[in-house]
Each structure stands twice: as structure tokens, then as C-alpha cells.
Amino acid sequence: MNQALKTNRVTIIVVAVALLLVAAVIAAAQYRQRKVIAAAERGGGSNDPVAVSVATVTPGDIIIRIPAIGTVTTLANVTVRTQISGTLQRIAFKEGQLVHAGDVIAEIDPRPYEAALQTAQGNLRRDQALLADARLDLTRYEALVKEDSIATQQLDTQRALVDQYTGTIESDEGQVKTAQVNLVYTRIVSPVTGRVGIRQVDQGNYVTPGDANGIVIINQLQPISVIFSIPEDNVTALMKKVHAGAQLKVEAYDRANTTKLADGALSTVDNEIDTTTGTLKLRAEFANDDGALFPNQFVNVSLLLDELHHQLIMPNAAVRRGAPNGVVSNFVYLVQPDHSVVVRPVTLGVVDGDRVAVSAGLAAGAVVVTEGADRLRDGAKIQLPQ
Fold first, then answer.
1. Which of 59, 186, 239, 297 is the most buried (most CB within 10 A)?
2. 3-state helix vs strand vs coil in the chain, percent to 5
3. What integer pLDDT is reported at residue 43 of this predicted model?
4. What confidence tens digit (pLDDT) does each residue in 253-301 have?
């Protein structure tokens, strides 16, 4: 029994020693972790400079831009319809083809209209002959009346007949012109230069002017426009530029707002602000020579409202926001000659993409931290890029 008791005591001692060792290992790991965290919070420590990226404040020009969302729209969207009724004899385009104004789109069977023109011309010639005969008789009657050989009433009747034939000829000439126009309408031509869509009717069908879908839709692509809206807060500054005759530039970017698609110019300003959205609708026109813009395409728009000269400019990434001195403000980490940084409050101006103008707080040539500032504090040492 004494032997069993000794064995239990040894087991308890071994377990206790193992627990103590585990506790010591955990405590040591926690101590090392706290040291790492403390060193990180101190910016790597006074003897461990923080690697950063920097940029220099430089003078330059900055552009005031108004961002917006726009939709590409055509300057001409034409549904080509026939102006006469008849059998569609020929389709003269391929779907998606680029056509020019005056190009033949389709042809309607012209034979009924050729026959109508021939009939109208025949009626005109017949009535012209009757008019010529009536005028000869009128001349004879005028001479006989002077000799008192016929009654004046007969002369008046002949004059009325001449006027009647004259009116008939004018009507015949109108019918001839109508028949000629209808014959021209048998050749359907494109009214604008643009790209044709998918045809709405096939060759051999009987078409009429009342067909709702027409034959095909043509969209003008060059030039093309973009319709977008800007907040009403920008309307006053915009209208000052418009009334001064300024030609405002407009840039169109893709959906991700990373790739520029085209450069254009502001062409139209709407005549009222939409009260439901508080925005003003604008139209910009683009040459679109490369076809980068397509009807109904979504684009990001940048309206270049003004250009400010002789500004101090730095990257927007250098700006920090907080209260390092107990006052909430915008500030930067200004690099000192001894490779340390100080907190410098700044007053910002206009933002232009990834650049920002500095109104106060910095001078030209100042070097500011752009990357790695999250690990810095006032007075911290830094390691500059090679």
C-alpha cells in the first residue's frame, strides 16, 4: 500500500511540473507578442525606421471637374418606312451595315406606279390638245364678234371652255407630279448616315406606310452624344461659363471609370432643373470616329468646368484625416531633413482625380508621406525609398 501511495505522489508531482512548464511557455509567448505590438505602435521604435513612400509638393495647374453618369444617345434615330404601298421587291442592305445618306435601302415593285404615271401623262396630252383647239375657236369667235357674225354669248361660252381646259391641264400636271413622286418612292433611301439594325420585314412582303415597325432602324453613330445630369449646386458656375461663350470639354469613361473612351464638348443645356432629382440635364457631343461609344451605353462622364493655374499640388494619398493635436483637421506627415516626420495641418483646395490642391500649410518643394503613414507618429523616423 505504501508503494501505491508513493507512485501516486510521483504522478502528481510530474503533472504539476508539466503544468508549470506549459504556463511558462504561454507566458513567454504572450510577453513576446506584447513586445511586437508595442514596437509596431511606436512606429517600429526609434531605432527601427518605417519604410514609406513620399511625394513632393509641386506648383502646377489643376482642373475643376464635375463627375456624372451618362447614357450614350444617337443624334438621329430613324425608323425607315415606306411612303407607298406595294410588294417589297429587294432588300439592299446587310444587317449592321454602315450606310450613307442617299444609299438605297430597299425597292418596291415599281410597275403599278409606272403605269399610273403613263396614264397621267396621257391624260395631260389629251387635255392639252383640247385646250389648243378651244383657243383656236376662241380666236375665230373674237373675229366673228367684231364682224357681228355671231352672238356675244357664244364667245363667252368659248372663253369659259378655254378656262375649263386650262384648269384640267393644271390638275393633270399635278397628277403627273404625284405619279412621278410615287415612282421615286419605290426606291427607299437612307435619310442619314449611320448603322442599320436588324431588318423588320423580309423581301416579298406587302408593305404599307402604316406598318408600325417599318423596314429597319438606322442610328447615327458619328457624331454621337451623351446625355448626363449634374447637381443644381453646380448650375450657377456652369451657366457663367456658358454665357461667357466657353467651349467646355467633356470626357467619357467606361463603366469601371478607368479607361477613357472619348473626348467631346458640351453642346446643349436643358432649360429647367428636374425638381424630383435636383439635377440639370446636359448633352455632350463626341466625334466617335473610332466607334468607341455605342447607343444606350452606360458611361462615366467628367465635365471640365474650369482650370486653375499656379496651384500647389500633391497626391491625394498624402492626406490624413483626424485630430493629432486635439483638433479635427486634414494633415500630412511632412518629411524633415533628418529623415523624421512631423504632423502638419493643411487646408485643401480642389480635388482632381488622385491629385489635390493645397491652399495653406505647405510650400513648394515640401516632401510628404504617401504610403506607410498608418504606422507613423509625430517625430517618427522613416526610411526613404532608394
1. 186
2. 35, 35, 30
3. 46
4. 999 988 999 999 999 999 999 999 999 999 999 999 998 999 999 999 9
* Confidence (pLDDT) at 80: 93
The range of the structural domain enclosing residue 379 comes to 50-60+311-383
The 10s digit of each residue's pLDDT in 31-53 is 666 655 555 555 444 457 888 88
CATH number of the domain that residue 236 is part of: 2.40.30.170
Based on the domain organization, do 205 and 87 belong to the same domain? yes
Does one domain contain both 100 and 195?
yes
Contact between 218 and 99 under an 8 Å Cβ cutoff? The reply is: yes
Split into its structural domains, the chain has a count of 4
The answer to whether 306 and 63 are in contact (CB under 8 A) is yes
Tell me whether residue 211 is exposed, middle or buried, using C-beta atoms within 10 angstroms of its C-beta: 0 to 12, 13 to 18, 19 or more. middle
Whole-Å CA distances, 358 to 218, 303, 313, 318, 351: 50, 22, 6, 11, 9
Q: What is the pLDDT of residue 141?
A: 86
188: domain CATH number is: 2.40.50.100
Contact (Cβ atoms closer than 8 angstroms) between residue 312 and residue 362: yes
Using 50 as the pLDDT threshold, list the residues of the chain that sit under it.
1, 43-46
Pair 212, 95 in one domain: yes
Same domain, 283 and 350: no
